[in-house]
Design brief:
36% helix; 6 strands; 4-stranded antiparallel beta sheet; alpha+beta
Amino acid sequence: MPSLINSNAAVPAPVGLLTEAKSKIVLVNKSNKLPDDYTVSLKKLPDGTNYADMKAYDAMCSMLKDSRKEGIILEVCSSYRSVERQKELFEEDMRALVRKGYSYLDAYDEVARETMPPGYSEHSTGLAFDIVALDYQMLNEKQERTPENQWLREHCAEYGFILRYTEEKTDITGISPEPWHYRYVGEEVARYIMDNDLTLEEYWEEVKQNG
């Protein structure tokens, strides 16, 4: 995969990256299942509904608070989902397509374009959040044009978050664009990824190449 990183910049990689892979920069996608022994330590966000892993909790609270000071009111509409809940959602979407005449395999492939199979969703890490504008909570392309989303794109890395699925990198992530989906990876890694227009997959490749 071609590198998009400034060759003069050092790739921020924590000491013992393989151990850290079970922490805040764990890679979970269609090719990388969440480790069976992965554990989360959850705390309810101030909205009283959503949960965040403790590794992301303070950063998320700070981002929500600071954005509000600037007149930007963000709404976390989805956060932690257990593997069991992810399975329910995935199978529910599949059944809807099968009822429309899709074969089982075609229904699976279609649903997997936008919904991760159970065990392969970042939401099960407690580090992934769907964030929308308070006054526009639809998960569609219009979300990208809201002032709230523009603020997130500009400032998310300051709090350790990255925009996870972009239109330009669909061929790498394998997921349709989701301008509302943000992932916590820690400030140093987030700044590096966002400054260099990388996906988390590309970042991992660079880390491996740099030993």
